Automatic annotation (TrEMBL):
<keyword id="KW-0805">Transcription regulation</keyword>
<feature type="compositionally biased region" description="Polar residues">
    <location>
        <begin position="180"/>
        <end position="191"/>
    </location>
</feature>
<dbReference type="InterPro" id="IPR023696">
    <property type="entry name" value="Ureohydrolase_dom_sf"/>
</dbReference>
<feature type="binding site">
    <location>
        <position position="390"/>
    </location>
    <ligand>
        <name>Zn(2+)</name>
    </ligand>
</feature>
<dbReference type="InterPro" id="IPR023801">
    <property type="entry name" value="His_deacetylse_dom"/>
</dbReference>
<feature type="region of interest" description="Disordered">
    <location>
        <begin position="153"/>
        <end position="194"/>
    </location>
</feature>
<dbReference type="GO" id="GO:0000122">
    <property type="term" value="P:negative regulation of transcription by RNA polymerase II"/>
</dbReference>
<feature type="site" description="Contributes to catalysis">
    <location>
        <position position="615"/>
    </location>
</feature>
<keyword id="KW-0156">Chromatin regulator</keyword>
<feature type="domain" description="Histone deacetylase">
    <location>
        <begin position="313"/>
        <end position="631"/>
    </location>
</feature>
<keyword id="KW-0378">Hydrolase</keyword>
<feature type="active site">
    <location>
        <position position="442"/>
    </location>
</feature>
<keyword id="KW-0804">Transcription</keyword>
<keyword id="KW-0539">Nucleus</keyword>
<feature type="compositionally biased region" description="Basic and acidic residues">
    <location>
        <begin position="165"/>
        <end position="177"/>
    </location>
</feature>
<comment type="similarity">
    <text>Belongs to the histone deacetylase family. HD type 2 subfamily.</text>
</comment>
<dbReference type="InterPro" id="IPR046949">
    <property type="entry name" value="HDAC4/5/7/9"/>
</dbReference>
Length: 715
């Protein structure tokens, strides 16, 4: 049988070569045309079928003879094709075994007859599986190291965003390197299997002795390949450890000096408890920095008129965009803690507004179609929206409406103020500033007006009182327009004191409300204070008038009320730079910083400012910068000495007298305003000088009426 097998082997070289192609297929995904280009040209179909049949008959005879003579198990193991059938899909997925080419792309050739060749194939395949398993474990370790590095980076608030992105890209490249190395190594090993099988089968045809030397060469090659792969893995592991050391060194060097730099809003911290790496601040009791909070969200930029022309609409997205840019440029933003905003729920909005108002202005068009029209419209009979002259849609000529984005922006503005105030009330933050739009203090229970849809400050006050059990809340409205919506919400509420400084002009300035005698009703009588400036812009109110109002009315009543938190409707349209229809006053931006500093003396410093009005970009940026400097406790630019000792103008004195006379009935600390004696003497002397100058000027004038009238007008 042995001699006949050798003779048969010499006569079947083409079939052996075809068998090599099939074994090469098992070893890797190398096309036969690239590895053995001569196979496709050899053998005819009839001769290959005959060779296959003869080979199978011969194999069966040899197997039966060995079983009969020796009674032993066959020496050769299962063929790779049989082994292939036993490989489960789970094992293939776990070890990423190379997939086989479909049968229509392979030669119909017999397997190699040589027992030694089959042993080598199986041995190489087992080694390949072991290497793949080791390599997958090493890749998993590398990924764990990379994940640990990311976890170490994220809590480190002092690292710059650009630095994080740079290191992130570098670590991603390092993670990709082992994967690419694995694929190259798998391809090279599969190609090597094909080549080695060809060499081994050729050696069997001549003689069997060189097989041992070939096996040694192959073993050395595989060992050298494993050593190279192991060295590469060791190098990557050392590189990851080196990266960890760099980050730890940076953190220990920068320390608390960089604790005020925070991650951007788009990222969320992730530090699992089972991390194997020590947290850099683990020895500290708390990572939280007790400082000023700032909240802002780009969703509020989308609320804009569909005409797209900012010139027609003073309340536009550039307002909060410019303030946010100013805070970044001055470095104030890095000293504050940035808070992630959220949309207020309809339930929260209905703390102040009616159900139909909340649904109408707080839902998207698709959701609005599903609602009951009676709930949506309520008792409103007038037209809800109108076409504006610019071509857009609006509630009125000022309050524009964007069907796609206005509802989301209005709810986001409310949610941002709620989130910030809740953290200040719970002492997570020292104080805060909300850069939000659209404004809110004109929005009444069922009416949107004056750029406002939802009253953010009023909703926040009721949320703090009802949800967080805050007993007494002070609301100070610094906007040049009266906050009619806020006054309406708390007109009979003694737990919330509302104070407003605004241009009134006997009810001739928008919105027409806010008279001094509007003091509240029922149990809330006396908890509504209106400092209503009259007299128009002759002269306009400035720093002196506002500082005097704080000194004589606001701070005494606020100290007597003793609030637990202070909410400020921070409208900056009283700052100089606004045209008369939108303000016309001459209060400086730095004066708003000093007013904020005075409010910080109340409620243990728990003060939250929310942007309301203000439409001159330079003015609102300067005022916001001054207020945040005050919230942070930075040194403020001092006011001029003459302003501190100057008395208000006559119109302001009249307004303050009327307000103090009314409020002194409810607040012991508020006394009727009277001009100090020295100030009154200085004022009377000034008036006498002006009268004397007028008389002398009139005496020097010509009697001619035509000349007298223009000179009198200029005087």
């Amino acid at each position: 049988a042995s001699s006949s097998f050798k003779e048969k082997q010499k006569g079947e070289t083409p079939s052996l070569r075809q068998g090599v192609a099939l074994a090469g297929q098992y070893g890797g995904n190398i096309p036969p045309s690239s590895t053995h280009p001569h196979i496709a040209l050899e053998g005819k179909p009839n001769s290959s079928h005959q060779a296959l049949l003869q080979h199978l008959l011969l194999k069966e005879q040899m197997r039966q003879q060995k079983l009969l003579v020796t009674g032993a198990v066959p020496l050769h193991p299962q063929s790779p094709l049989a082994a292939k059938e036993r490989v489960s899909p789970g094992i293939r997925a776990a070890h990423k075994l190379p997939r086989h080419r479909p049968l229509n792309r392979t030669q119909s050739a017999p397997l190699p007859q040589s027992t030694l060749a089959q042993l080598v194939i199986q041995q190489q395949h087992q080694q390949f599986l072991e290497k793949q398993k080791q390599y997958q474990q090493q890749i998993h370790m590398n990924k764990m190291l990379s994940k640990s590095i990311e976890q170490l980076k994220q809590p480190g608030n002092h690292l710059e965003e650009a630095e994080e992105e740079l290191h992130g890209d570098h670590s991603m490249q390092e993670e990709r390197a082992p994967t690419s190395g694995a694929s190259v190594r798998a391809e090279s090993s599969s190609a090597g299997v094909d080549d080695r099988i060809g060499q081994q089968v050729g050696a069997v045809k001549v003689k069997e002795e060189p097989l041992d030397s070939d096996e040694d060469v192959q073993t050395q090659q595989m060992e050298s390949g494993e050593q190279a792969a192991f060295m590469q893995q060791e190098f990557l592991a050392h590189q990851h450890v080196h990266q960890l050391q760099i980050y730890q060194a940076q953190m220990s060097t920068v320390g608390m000096a960089g604790s005020d730099k925070h991650r951007p809003l788009s990222r969320t911290p992730s530090s699992p408890a089972d991390s194997t790496l020590p947290h850099p601040d683990m020895d500290q009791p708390s990572q939280h920095v007790y400082t000023t909070g700032v909240v802002y969200d780009s969703l509020m930029l989308k609320h804009q008129c569909m005409c797209g022309n900012y010139a027609n609409h003073p309340e536009h997205a550039g307002r909060i965009q410019s303030i946010w840019s100013r805070l970044q440029e001055t470095g104030l933003l890095n000293k504050c803690e940035r808070i992630r905003g959220r949309k207020a729920s309809l339930e929260e909005i209905q703390l102040v507004h009616s159900e139909h108002h909340s649904l109408l202005y707080g839902t998207s068009p698709l959701n609005r179609q599903k609602l009951d029209p009676r709930k949506l419209l309520g008792n409103v009979s007038q037209k809800l929206f109108s076409l504006l002259p610019c071509g857009g849609l609006g509630v009125d000529s000022d309050t524009v409406w964007n069907e796609l984005h206005s509802a989301g922006a209005a709810r986001m503005a409310v949610g941002c103020v709620i989130e910030l105030a809740a953290r200040v009330a719970s002492r997570e933050l020292k104080n805060g500033f909300a850069v939000v739009r659209p404004p809110g203090h004109h929005a009444e229970e069922s009416t949107a007006m004056g750029f406002c849809f939802f009253n953010s400050i009023a909703i926040t006050a009721k949320y703090l009182r009802d949800k967080l059990n805050i007993g007494k809340i002070l609301i100070v409205d610094l906007d040049v327009h009266h906050g009619n919506g806020t006054q309406q919400a708390f007109y009979a509420d003694p737990s919330i004191l509302y104070v407003s400084l605004h241009r009134y002009d006997e009810g001739n300035f928008f919105p027409g409300s806010g008279a001094p005698n509007e003091v509240g009703s029922g149990p809330g009588e006396g908890y509504n204070i209106n400092i209503a400036w009259t007299g128009g812009l002759d002269p306009p109110m400035g720093d002196v008038e506002y500082l005097t109002a704080f000194r004589t009315v606001i701070m005494p009543a606020a100290n007597e009320f003793d609030p637990e938190i202070v909410l400020v409707s921070a409208g900056f349209d009283a700052v100089e730079g606004h045209d008369p229809p939108l303000g016309g006053y001459k209060v400086t931006a730095k004066c708003f910083g000093h007013l904020t500093k005075q409010l910080l003396k109340l409620a243990d410093g728990r003060v939250v400012l929310a942007l309301e009005g203000g439409h001159d970009l330079t003015a609102i940026c300067d005022a916001s910068e001054a207020c945040i400097n005050a919230l942070l406790g930075n040194e403020l630019e001092p006011l001029p000495e003459d302003i501190v000792h100057q008395i208000p103008n006559m119109n302001a004195i009249a307004s303050l007298k009327k307000t103090t006379e009314i409020q002194s009935k409810y607040w012991k600390s508020v006394e009727p305003y009277s001009v100090p004696v020295d100030c009154a003497l200085a004022e009377s002397q000034k008036q006498e000088r002006e009268e004397t100058e007028t008389v002398s000027a009139m005496a020097s004038l010509s009697v001619d009426v035509e000349q007298c009238i223009p000179q009198e007008g200029s005087r």
